[in-house]
Amino acid sequence: MSVDKAGVKGTKNGPIVSPLFTPGHLACPGCGGTLALNRVLNVLGKRTVIALPACCFSIITGAFPHMPLNVNLVHTAFETAAALATGLKAGFEMTGRGDVTVMAWAGDGGTFDIGLQALSGAAERNEDIFFFCYDNEAYMNTGNQRSGATPLGSWTTTTPTGETMDKKDIMGIIAAHHIPYAATASIAHLDDLDAKVKKGEEIKGTKFIHILSACPTGWRMPSDMTIKAARLAVKSRVFPLMEIFNGERRVLNYRPEELTHVRDYLGLQGRFSHLTDGEIEEIQRRVDERWKKLVASVDEVRPADDGIEYI
Amino acid sequence: MKMLMEGNHAVSWGVMLSRVQVLPVYPITPQTHISEALADFVAEGRLDARYIKVESEHSAMAACIGASTANARAFTATSSQGLALMHEMLHWAAGARLPIVMANVNRAIGSPWNIWNDQSDSMSQRDTGWLQFYAEDNQECLDSIILAYMVSEAVLVPSMVVLDAFILSHTQEAVEIPEAGDVDAILPTLANPNAIDIDVPRAYSPVVAPDNFTEVKYKQYRASEDAIKTIEEAGAKFKDAFGRDYPLVSPYMMDDAKAVLVAAGAVTGTVRKAVDALRREGKKAGMLKIRTFRPFPRDRVREVLQGVPNVGVLDKSVFPGAGGPIAQEVRASLYYSGKSNGGTPRVTGFVGGLGGRDITVSDVAHAFETIMKGKGTDDPIFLGLKK
């Protein structure tokens, strides 16, 4: 964390608030997704067009005539983010504006579930687009119904006794498409996020970035816990920071020095408050198992951008 | 230049001559020859377009919407189940006021499975806000693509060009191919005022609250209604350039007709033959061909059917609980709330040609006999129904 001359808090790559995403939006206090989009736009710049399926941001960006973004934003139906982005990019290329960056900005529903078919198609064709999934782990815009990204044990309005399935392995699915670049990122590691978006900018083809986007409303926690929850997700190894190149070479960007128990992460959030000690231990066991497999599969362990120190 | 070609290839030629730039397509019988020919045109460098092999028709339309929003000329083709899968995005394209053109090869829609021709697929999409043009022959297939872009880009409403599966799609006819330069002269480069200007950030299709939504829909409605005039203007321009005339509706032998059958698509050729045969027998039969189904040319239909004692409508689709869609439109047009129009004709609905069942000249003659008896019915009469 650094403080620039104007006294604005930021990181070494720039201010936290991008001039491309202005105040006046309609996000809940403490929204992790808004922070994530701020960072992404800060890196990608003005010549960016967003393909936006139904998600929290359909509302966050405001009803006509309000518009808190200083980039073009194209709203579309729930399952079409990747297909719309495909068409936008093709349209720009065919009209002599191939330099325009086209990005899809989709929630977990528009990525893991209803949007997966179009995402798979675009990834398989290796369309020259960014696909960002800001993952708040449920259908939060409609009041917290479970999605394919909802983690085991989580309470939602459609899993009143707790989610019984493990979160879908979206990175595994994406890796199987052999796109040039896929990465996970966290709003608690902004320089890492920046570095990954910058890396993606230099790559032609499909870039997939999965951002765990802590959601105070849906996760049932105070609005000032967003960053802490996001950080604990990474430290407890629930959400590893990683990169996958061409579906094969795997890099782990962060290896926690000491083990943080999932209890610390889950305990922050009301959506897990019903879990028994035994259930929490079962979640820990699964996290350990996945981590072991991940570490065994990675080719390299290093920060995404050399020299970054994670707090 | 004249070439022997099937209706599907006539569509592909129309697309090439319209200099379409983005082609997201997904194959489906009996549309596939359109996409295959377009793939060849692009591969051979005859058409400078991005050909996108999308993973579904739903995505095909979403990609057309993206391309059109970026101010590129976009086209896709589909049929039947594919069109049904697109349904949501058809509303989206029309609401976003994008001049996309699509060819739909008319095929029955399941259940049960049936790959043959009827009009139930496109008629099911009649209320999505798209213009709909029904082609009678392969020449009309080609010309309609060009005309559709002329109209859509003028009024910013998407267009569907509809052709009958197998009857046109896979049947060869001699087709006159317009010169590319002549097409360029009547269809200039796309300049959609609603397309993205990268330097001017705007939200496209955002949430529009109750205080503005009605106005957006009103403008969309008006644009579609006003397309009637634009279709006539584009038709006149096209006639000047190529000598072929495409009015909204085409009356045939109607001046003194006592019984008129209304129809759309390739079956109008059969109806014309039946009218000729009946005329030879001294019976005063006539036909009204509907080329533009959306917007429905109510005024023209009312005007030409005025004073005809008996009218029949031949639908190649049927909606349970409502009858045939063209019959509904014709009846609605004749129920005029203004001054008297000289007597409202009795309208008898016929349903035929479902799922590829042949409609013969004698079927049509039989329909005319029924009309001439002057017994209008609410329920449609199913032609050739087996007991």
Short note summarizing the structure:
The complex is a heterodimer of chains A (311) and B (387). Helix content of chain A is 34%, strand content 16%.
Quickly list its features.
heterodimer; A: 311 residues; alpha/beta; nine-stranded mixed beta sheet; three-stranded antiparallel beta sheet; 11 helices; 12 strands; globular; B: 387 residues; six-stranded mixed beta sheet; five-stranded mixed beta sheet; 12 helices; 19% strand; PorB-like (chain A)
What layout of secondary structure does this protein have?
The complex is a heterodimer of chains A (311) and B (387).
Chain A lengths: L1 E2 L5 E3 L2 E2 L16 H13 L3 E5 L3 H5 L11 E4 L5 H14 L6 E6 L2 H5 L2 H9 L5 E6 L34 H6 L5 E6 L3 H12 L5 E6 L3 H4 L6 H10 L6 E4 L3 E4 L9 H6 L9 H21 L2 E2 L10
Parallel strand pairs in A: 4-5, 4-6, 6-7, 7-9, 8-9, 11-12
Antiparallel strand pairs in A: 1-2, 2-3, 8-10, 10-11
Helix pairs in contact in A: 1-7, 3-5
Chain B lengths: L1 E5 H11 L4 E4 L6 H12 L6 E4 L3 H13 L5 E4 L1 H16 L5 E6 L13 H4 L7 E4 L3 H18 L3 E6 L7 E5 L3 H7 L16 E2 L5 H33 L6 E4 L6 E5 L3 H14 L4 E6 L1 E3 L3 H8 L4 E6 L9 H10 L11 E6 L9 H12 L8 E2 L5
Parallel strand pairs in B: 2-3, 4-5, 5-7, 6-7, 11-12, 11-14, 14-15, 15-16
Antiparallel strand pairs in B: 1-8, 6-13, 10-12
Helix pairs in contact in B: 1-2, 1-6, 3-4, 6-8, 9-12, 10-11
Describe this structure in words.
The complex is a heterodimer of chains A (311) and B (387). With 311 residues, chain A is an alpha/beta fold. Helix content of chain A is 34%, strand content 16%. Chain A contains 11 helices and 12 strands. In chain A, α2 links the parallel β4 and β5. In chain A, α1 (32-44) packs across α7 (190-201) and α3 runs parallel beside α5. Chain A is globular, with a radius of gyration of 18 Å. Chain B has 387 residues and is α/β, with parallel strands linked by helices. Chain B contains 12 helices and 16 strands. In chain B, the strands form 4 sheets. Chain B has a 6-stranded mixed beta sheet, sandwiched between helices. A 5-stranded mixed beta sheet of chain B has the order 4-5-7-6-13, with helices on both faces. In chain B, α1 runs parallel beside α6, α3 (57-69) runs parallel beside α4 and α9 packs across α12. Chain B is globular. The model of chain B has no long low-confidence stretch (mean pLDDT 96). Classes of the chains: A alpha/beta (311), B alpha/beta (387). At the A-B interface, β5, α3 and α5 of A face β3, α3, α4 and β9 of B. β5 of chain A pairs parallel with β9 (203-204) of chain B, so a sheet runs across the interface.
